[in-house]
Amino acid sequence: MPANTTMLHIRIDEDVKTRAAAALEGVGLTLSDAVRILLTRVAREGGLPPGLTVSEETHDEWFRRKVQEALDDPGPLLSHEEAIREIDELIRIRVRDRSPLE
Fold this sequence. Notes:
This protein is an all-alpha fold and 102 residues long. The chain is 61% helix and 0% strand. The protein has helices at 14-25, 31-45, 56-72, 80-97. The longest helix has 18 residues, at 80-97. It is extended and about 55 Å long. Keywords: Toxin-antitoxin system. InterPro entries: Arc_rbn_hlx_hlx, RelB/DinJ. Belongs to the RelB/DinJ antitoxin family. This is Type II toxin-antitoxin system RelB/DinJ family antitoxin.
């Protein structure tokens, strides 16, 4: 865990807490993990993640902003074919360098 952390205390219905903890345990998460994931996404995305927003307008606005950010990204462009070639080469190297099972 990062060195610069803080404690968060919340009040929640006991039944909701119990059912959520059981559901999260089924996917290998704790309540703290889930809250940390949610708050990290809210901080990064500037609002509730899609699916948790109340209105379609809010989600549409978020989605359009994300698409525009992707379109404006000056990062390197890689065609689908180039990406597949690079991945295939990495797989070939990995398979070639794998030592035989003993």
